[in-house]
Amino acid sequence: MSSGQATMRSKEELREKWMKPDVITGSEILLRSLLLEGVDCVFGYPGGAVLFIYDAMHGFTDFNHLLTRHEQGAIHAADGYARATGKPGVCIATSGPGATNLVTGIATAYMDSVPLVVITGNVAQQFIGTDAFQEADITGITMPITKHSYLVRDAADLPRIIHEAFHIANTGRKGPVLIDIPKDVSAQKTTFVPALEPVVIRGYDAPAEPNGEAITAMIQAIQEAERPVILAGGGVVYSGAHNELLEFVTKTNIPVTTTLLGLGGFPSGNELWMGMPGMHGTYTANMAIQNSDLLINIGARFDDRVTMKLEAFAQQAKVIHIDIDPAEIGKNVPTDIGIHGDIKVVLTAVNQAAKPATKAEAWRSLIQANKRDYPLSYEDSEVELKPQWVIEMIHETTNGEAIVSTDVGQHQMWAAQYYKFNQPRSWITSGGLGTMGFGFPSAIGAQMAHPERLVVSINGDGGMQMCAQELAICAINNIPVKVVIINNQVLGMVRQWQEIIYDNRYSHIDLAGSPDFVKLAEAYGVKGFRATNKEEASRAWQEALNTPGPAVVEFVVRKGENVFPMVKAGDSISQMIMGDA
Fold it and tell me: Which residue out of 11, 126, 133, 379 is catalytically annotated?
């Protein structure tokens, strides 16, 4: 028997074991149901209301749980797992403060359309509404930031609820689903009946086939356009439509710009890629959008950091918007042709009829000239370590093949600008909510999902301190994330805004009292390195790459460095501050 056959047989045997109609507790039903949904890692933190659940884990060797050091670390790790795989991430927390510590992570996933199944404990049903110890109405608290939520009243309902939760989280516009389990439900015994049938929920349907007339109108618009542009967003990545997008671009020869969450959805090495648009977008991408006569939005939501001054955005363009969420079409930018559907399905249909944009030859030449004449640039230094140079070095040494997570701030924008991605699901960052503390734990989730790949977590010295405690689980479990800290001893993006917009009135941004990050890493049992110039940086980074387990590298960079280009709030995306270089 081959090893593949043996593995398949063992999986089948495990499924048979998990599906047995035993009389078991709600906690055991939960664990079995998660395994039947294909969950291979759960991130969590125990507490009183989930003790029956954690007791069920004791000795249950088929169930893999990673104990984080904070509930926020758990949910960000689950988020990173989901973004790296496309499968729902799962986390568990107790009632009250445990559940409320998940709120920021739930909002982060909701804003970025990331599938999560969030499991919380609650006080026993008899105490709900009495202000019992560690009681919180977590379903009510999170109602605006979840796709759906459940308060479980009977252990017999758990298999169906869990089956539905995974379906809801990972279909349509993806997002977080919360399951709140009172303590008496987790202890209740009943016969386990696994939920195996396809999920059918009244009023919740998959998108219909894309409108054929709209697709025909789109093909016609491309033929008539002289200055077409594709704006590709996170929907391309989430639907797995990167190959279909590449085929569409190859057939039409239309230049492409990818949003922050769309990075990796189109290969950065393609000559038609223009970089990222918006507040810190490239000159080429922003000017192409502003001068286009046809703007094809594929899976982006016209976020304000892309459009900036809305009434001045792409005023000359006919707008086509393809999105899985019909509420996004026409919400922010008036749309001439709206196509509701899954991006992969829509592009598959479009590609059957797609033809070259024959009137756009001069336009493509202009864009190539802009890429040549207005590249991303910065003033390098042989004295000070520049953050842009650090990102370029990381890109070169990893050949653009790493999974890169970031926190939020200047380093995030430099990483988006100077790290070039070859494949989707390699870029993990908090876009819509902009959550500091997200970067490092999300990298842990990505590494758990892909133990065979190099995962690099790029952080600022501010955000790193918000979830630095998760260094413990990297050390204990030998999770080989390479943690980069771009240390400018300041809240860099806030400082940049205070310099440019608030006339150098710097207020409460000094992080000079931060810890020695090398000593902090070593305190957790992780190797730490520091670099203050190019030679030290190259050597320290190579040592980190050669370290078989986790490693932390602190790059001490210039405090006053700014991210350019930059568009100030209230300006159009053609009003770019290009910077000294």
Answer: 133
